[in-house]
Amino acid sequence: MVDNAELDKNKGIVFSAILNIENKHFLNDPEGETILNDLILKEGYNDIISVRTAKSIKIEIIAKNIEDAKVKITEMCDTLRIYNPIVSDCKITVKKKR
Protein backbone atom coordinates (compact mmCIF):
# COMPACT_ATOMS: atom_id res chain seq x y z
CA MET A 1 0.00 0.00 0.00
CA VAL A 2 1.28 3.47 -0.92
CA ASP A 3 1.07 6.15 1.76
CA ASN A 4 -0.73 9.45 1.12
CA ALA A 5 2.46 11.55 1.15
CA GLU A 6 3.82 9.54 -1.78
CA LEU A 7 0.56 9.95 -3.67
CA ASP A 8 0.73 13.72 -3.09
CA LYS A 9 4.17 13.96 -4.69
CA ASN A 10 3.51 11.67 -7.66
CA LYS A 11 -0.05 12.32 -8.83
CA GLY A 12 -1.68 15.18 -6.98
CA ILE A 13 -3.32 15.97 -3.67
CA VAL A 14 -5.51 13.55 -1.74
CA PHE A 15 -8.99 14.94 -1.09
CA SER A 16 -11.84 13.61 0.97
CA ALA A 17 -15.30 14.07 -0.53
CA ILE A 18 -18.74 13.51 0.95
CA LEU A 19 -21.70 12.99 -1.36
CA ASN A 20 -24.99 13.67 0.40
CA ILE A 21 -27.91 12.27 -1.62
CA GLU A 22 -31.50 12.91 -0.60
CA ASN A 23 -34.95 12.94 -2.15
CA LYS A 24 -35.98 16.26 -3.68
CA HIS A 25 -37.93 18.45 -1.27
CA PHE A 26 -41.27 17.87 -3.00
CA LEU A 27 -41.09 14.07 -2.69
CA ASN A 28 -42.24 12.09 0.32
CA ASP A 29 -39.62 10.66 2.65
CA PRO A 30 -41.36 7.73 4.40
CA GLU A 31 -38.27 6.89 6.48
CA GLY A 32 -38.00 10.51 7.67
CA GLU A 33 -41.72 10.59 8.47
CA THR A 34 -41.41 7.40 10.53
CA ILE A 35 -38.49 8.85 12.49
CA LEU A 36 -40.41 12.10 13.04
CA ASN A 37 -43.45 10.20 14.31
CA ASP A 38 -41.29 8.15 16.69
CA LEU A 39 -39.57 11.28 18.02
CA ILE A 40 -42.85 13.08 18.67
CA LEU A 41 -45.20 10.27 19.68
CA LYS A 42 -42.87 7.88 21.53
CA GLU A 43 -40.17 10.17 22.86
CA GLY A 44 -41.99 13.50 23.31
CA TYR A 45 -39.67 15.65 21.17
CA ASN A 46 -42.48 18.03 20.25
CA ASP A 47 -40.10 20.76 19.03
CA ILE A 48 -39.00 18.69 16.01
CA ILE A 49 -40.81 19.94 12.90
CA SER A 50 -39.36 17.84 10.10
CA VAL A 51 -36.98 14.94 9.47
CA ARG A 52 -35.48 14.06 6.09
CA THR A 53 -33.18 11.11 5.54
CA ALA A 54 -30.26 10.96 3.14
CA LYS A 55 -27.58 8.59 1.91
CA SER A 56 -23.98 9.63 2.43
CA ILE A 57 -21.00 8.35 0.44
CA LYS A 58 -17.39 9.11 1.40
CA ILE A 59 -14.77 9.07 -1.36
CA GLU A 60 -11.04 9.70 -1.27
CA ILE A 61 -9.69 11.00 -4.56
CA ILE A 62 -6.42 12.27 -6.00
CA ALA A 63 -6.72 15.57 -7.88
CA LYS A 64 -4.81 18.74 -8.70
CA ASN A 65 -7.11 20.94 -6.57
CA ILE A 66 -10.57 21.05 -5.01
CA GLU A 67 -12.29 22.10 -8.26
CA ASP A 68 -10.62 19.25 -10.15
CA ALA A 69 -11.79 16.82 -7.46
CA LYS A 70 -15.38 18.12 -7.70
CA VAL A 71 -15.33 17.80 -11.51
CA LYS A 72 -14.03 14.21 -11.32
CA ILE A 73 -16.63 13.21 -8.73
CA THR A 74 -19.45 14.89 -10.66
CA GLU A 75 -18.41 13.03 -13.82
CA MET A 76 -18.30 9.77 -11.85
CA CYS A 77 -21.79 10.37 -10.47
CA ASP A 78 -23.19 11.17 -13.91
CA THR A 79 -21.44 8.29 -15.71
CA LEU A 80 -22.24 5.63 -13.11
CA ARG A 81 -25.68 7.03 -12.18
CA ILE A 82 -24.76 7.10 -8.49
CA TYR A 83 -28.05 8.93 -7.92
CA ASN A 84 -31.14 9.72 -9.98
CA PRO A 85 -31.17 13.49 -10.67
CA ILE A 86 -34.90 13.40 -11.39
CA VAL A 87 -35.82 12.41 -7.83
CA SER A 88 -32.66 13.18 -5.84
CA ASP A 89 -30.41 16.10 -5.04
CA CYS A 90 -26.70 15.49 -4.54
CA LYS A 91 -24.49 17.87 -2.61
CA ILE A 92 -20.75 17.30 -2.94
CA THR A 93 -18.41 18.61 -0.24
CA VAL A 94 -14.66 18.30 -0.83
CA LYS A 95 -11.76 19.09 1.47
CA LYS A 96 -8.07 18.32 1.49
CA LYS A 97 -7.34 15.18 3.45
CA ARG A 98 -5.07 15.66 6.41
What does this structure look like?
The chain is α+β, with helices and mostly antiparallel strands and 98 residues long. The protein has a domain of 66 residues: Mth169, Chain: A (2-Layer Sandwich). The chain has three helices and three strands; from the N terminus they run H-E-H-E-H-E. The chain has a three-stranded antiparallel β-sheet with strand order 2-1-3. It is elongated. The two termini are 18 Å apart.
The largest sheet, given as strand count, sense and whether it forms a barrel, is:
3 strands, antiparallel
> How many β-strand runs?
3
Specify the CATH homologous superfamily of the domain at 4-26 and 54-96: Phosphoribosylformylglycinamidine synthase subunit PurS
**What CATH first level of the domain at 4-26 and 54-96 would be assigned?**
Alpha Beta
Mean pLDDT: 91
Order of strands in the sheet with the most strands? 2-1-3
Q: What is the string of helix and strand elements?
A: HEHEHE
Fraction of residues in helix: 25-40%
- So, CATH architecture of the domain at 4-26 and 54-96? 2-Layer Sandwich
